[in-house]
Sequence to fold (1077 residues):
Amino acid sequence: MPVFKCFGKIVKKNKVSFMIYIVIFVAVLIIFTKVGSSNTDTLFSDAAVPIAIIDQDGSALSEALTAYIGERHQLIDLENDSEALQDALFFREIEYILWIPDGFEKAFVSEGDNLKLENTKLPDSTSGIYIDQQIDRYLATLRAYLNSEFEFSDALSSTEKDLALSTTVELSTGEQAEVSTISFFFQYLPYVLIAVIISALGPVFMEFNKKELARRTEASSLSLKSKNMQMALGCIVVSLILWGLFMIAITVSNINDIFTLTSALRIFNSLIFLIISIGIAFLLGQFLKNSESLNFITNCIALGMSFVCGIFIPQELLGSGILFIAKFLPAYWYIRNNNILTGMTSITVANIQPYLQGILIQSAFAVAFFIVALVISRQKKFHPVV
Amino acid sequence: MLHSFKYAFLCSIRNKSQLFWTLLFPIILGTFFHFGFNSIIENTENFSQIPVAIVTLTEGETSETFIEVAEQLVSGETPLLNPQFVDSQQAEKLLENEEIDGIFYIDDSIRLVVAEEGLRSSILKQISDSYLQTFSTVAAIAQTRPDLVTQVIEDINGEFQINREVILGKGETDTFLNYFYALIAMQCLFACYQGFYRVVNIQANMSSLAARRCVSPVKKMHMVLVDFIASICTQFVLLLIVLAYFVFILGINFSGQWGFVLLTSFVGCIVGVSYGTFIGSVLKSSKRTAEGLLTGLSLFLCFLSGLMLQNIKNVIENYAPIINRINPAALLTDAFYSLTVYDNYSRYMHNIISLLIIAAIFCTVSILNLRRKRYASI
Amino acid sequence: MKPTVVKVENLVKRYKELLAVDHFSLNIIEGEILGLLGPNGSGKTTTINCLLSLLQYDKGAIEIFGKPMSPDRYDLKQDIGIISQNVAVFEELTVYENVDYFCGLYIKDKLKRKDLVNEAIGFVGLNDYLKFYPSKLSGGLSRRLNIACGIAHKPKLIIMDEPTVAVDPQSRNRILKGIQTLNQNGATIIYTSHYMEEVEQICSRIIIMDKGRNLAEGTTEELKLMIKTGETIRIELLDLSKEHIENIKMLKHVFSVVFEDSLLTVRCRRGSHNLVTLLNYLHEHDINCGRVFSELPTLNDVFLEITGKQLRD
Fold:
């Protein structure tokens, strides 16, 4: 099986460069998964954030307000120094700063001066908005009591009592539908798969499609069918090894949670995407001439698809215009499947339909890539450009 | 000198793959960002008509008033809820089929059941918390001043503007501006290819072209310096084009301090070229390996500075802050960030100086390696 | 007495265990075209690279224009031009720009350089390709560009390392004629190759190299005189008995007789009647023959006799 052996040799020859890719992208994937899955905490309003409160009033009100916030969040003690505060904010030691100005209690009780609290928050912290609401709520409730002629200390304690009430929240299933690290791993996997598979297989296809080499192979006694079969075998072996490494990684790191039907469906989803990646590599190998171009196109496709299809930015947050374009890219359907599986609490014949649809569409993409590549290769054979 | 510079510049700027990486790619990605982010902002502000089921387990004051409140939240200009009043079984079914986002069970108090954690379930919780708290306040006040109840409800739920946001320093930071900073940092880092290819063309053991140049009566260091400057100039020109595209066509606002923005970009180019030169002077393996390393490493550094995942710098700050201090991409994004947020330049200068030190280290090591004039083998 | 342009004494260069250059010496006088002839791997390129101070060497002394050569001798480099085996030009510059760039490394005067560049391009016949990029040129044309870049500044010493590899015959002839013209205009040339026909054609003196050693040195005639073979005669015959083979061996000047595949190959020392004698013998014994070839010794024969190998395997 000369073509197959040659395939292996070319892959081996280039192994250093795509090993570098693998190492780097595996690191990226691990970090993505860890950081990405911890991101979701901040969406739920109950997460405690570090806050600095500069109490310039020192009154009962300011202390009560401070205590109220302190029960729900983490108070960090800082000086009222602009630079120190900016630094603390910049380095995420705190996410919110509240200034209670001198005379605030007095002004509040008498409804006299329009003395306001001041805050600064991190632009990318959603909890900041909730903290604003919590403070507003506290003061509004307090104002209501005061307006109803409650004594100041009574008003404070009643406010505290009221705001301690909260709804119990339960999730409809006993456990979470799935451990989030697994779903995040599979969300970011396509970016890495595309980059690694194309950089491993692309050079091989390019070598075989070099004019002189292609002609020589054609002129040999090896049938085209045999050549293609061997090439296909080479691809399958190399890709399965690489994909297998990733599957082993996620299995080992989530050994207790990976053996579920949902995870199995995710794995199958990624297998289909693997075939798509091979198809893209095959297609690119038909017309790319040197390793530089391959390098650039690989990263363009990987990064571009990742941004547009919902790998880096969740699909829910992308606008309709971008999503419309994304639908023409295979990664969109992969991610959609992944999201469907995340949302599923149980798997029934009915709710598996969209997933199967996604699989079908991805398969169609894969087939399309291979067909186009074969057509191009045929064209080059019968209409060679000398 | 000018003669060499002219041709070094031409070589740099005509290199097609260079042009792609450092010009087209950032423009394409930047365009994606721009359109992607505009739509994100639309989407996140838009949480209306959350479908929910209300199941009354025990009739009573709690349930009546809650239902009233729920109905109030339905009417109005921007209805927040879309409630259905059903029994327990039906509600569970609706939740399973994902036709609703949550179920409110009402008896003496309120219990909320949701299918998954997220922004919507947070909002539902806010609504019921708010209800419980208001109810308690109203109940307490109604005991002594029942006449004020309506006023109280209005006051609590109305706009209460007592907490004013101030900007620490100056300027607001658009959340997604960080992505653009990261993109510019990426472009600066990809200048490494320039640095690398210049080295290939001057190290006699890496190409015949270099051998020919080394045999000429021009000092090698002279050629290295000219190539280096030409690469930085080329890179800077390309970066200016990208910046112009971002500012004038996409309308991104980079704080208006053009002198410092350009200075930061220029320093970024120096760092990128010197890092590529360093890799070229140190690495003895094939071109393909070097290209893989340059691309992979640059992408990795950019990733760590927030190009793909926004708050990664925060996480790194908490676990391994040293990385943020030496990662050129992170230093560049920080420098841009400092320009837009802070009103003094100490943080900014700190970043710039760190970048220059990094560049100096790369350059020094490169010079030491490139000084060699004779090789053990060619 | 013309001055020595290049002097190499006892050059030794080792790549780990491999001795690439083994106590190699040579002397080149002004105005010569010296051919360095040897098979692939004989150390020609290594010697050249040592000469140009690109390679470190283990032992030996190298002088150019009478002065010791080192990487810092920019004064010496000013008058050297090299044309390497690989086409060493910038892919991103046009033909004109490439020649201008390399000339500019030697000649600072703009006007003078312009003339030189145009002259060099005209010399190699690339006038119609000024704005072409190297990737668009055929093999032969790229080689011509390679040459133009090496000679534009009119160097006194030109080193050409296998400049005609994979070049079409038309370009090759042009190149060889061009080299002779350069020499007539005063340049000293070192020409390395493994094509003996070219070396024989243009070189005034030849050094045969193998395994890093200087095996033989001299003009073509001198080299041919060094070997036993004065003439090689080949005759097509149907059949020849052992007895006849022995008899032919006894003929005057004959020292080797081989009969294989219907071809009789007889090697003789120098003599005026070798062919006649042989043909007479065959005629006397009624041995019918087909075609007859008689060759004077070639450099390949010289190489073969000295090393036991062919110049080109």
